[in-house]
Amino acid sequence: MEFNEFVETVRDLVVEYLLQYDIDKVCVEEVTKNNGISLTGLIIVEKGKNVHPNIYLNNYYSMYTNGTPVEEILRMIADDYKKSINNISNSKIDEIKEENILGNIFIKVVNYKKNKDILKNCPHIVFHDLAISFRYLVKMDKAGIASAQLRNEEMSRLNMTVEELYPIAKENTKRLFPPVLTRLDELLEEKYDENIGCLGDNNLYILTNNQGINGASYIIYEDIINNFAIEHDTDFFILPSSIHEILLLPVEDSMDKEELVEMVKEVNNYVVSELDYLSDNVYFYDRKIGKIIE
Questions:
Q1: Distance separating alpha carbons of residues 278 and 242, to the nearest angstrom
Q2: What is the mean pLDDT of residues 155-166?
Q3: What is residue 150's DSSP assignment?
Q4: 35, 277 Cβ separation under 8 angstroms
């Protein structure tokens, strides 16, 4: 089956695997995610419920093309739905009230060019080849994090300018998602319980947040960036690993920026997903002027 036929088949048959639920309808919706990536979501609407999980079908189609039978995929989608419903029922999702939004707005840094169309309808600030965008936290618990993009219409109701919102969102981000700065080799040793030594004999550091989600936003925090330069008494390169983290690499005489750029491009091409892509650029922090330059 081609993708569209697969989607129609799943939409028509998935209810047979959810007979214990009072399903009203099953819809298909195209959703534009980070970097303009379009995903096809299956929305299963249960009678009497206001919140409906969105199950993306793109990965399921890849499984189908790799040989997984449709019946098994339908069972997996049904299981995903059950887990999502359980998570929703065990979570407290409050209605988003305007007075609650301001204290829960946080920052997400994305690639400007790839998100230009989305950003037309959202408050943002251009930062080099990136964009500082704003989201508001709906919930955060053991089941995960739910957030939504702040759009111009919500911004209008807040009666604030982007310049007024920016420092508030920065403070919220630090409070909601505190920064975490660790040497990369130490992080990997902790994760894999193995002494791997310092990668390439370089003091490579990873800067993210305590959730490991959207942690690259800390590239805009002048205090954190400057303190790193002071502590290590050096200029350093900033490598955009993904939207979730950045890498800080103190400068050594043997380093060539063009080689670092090629390395970042290669990692982006073969390792980082399209959804998590941030940039192919390598930035340089000059401690004398206290600024990030390209």
A1: 5
A2: 92
A3: P
A4: yes
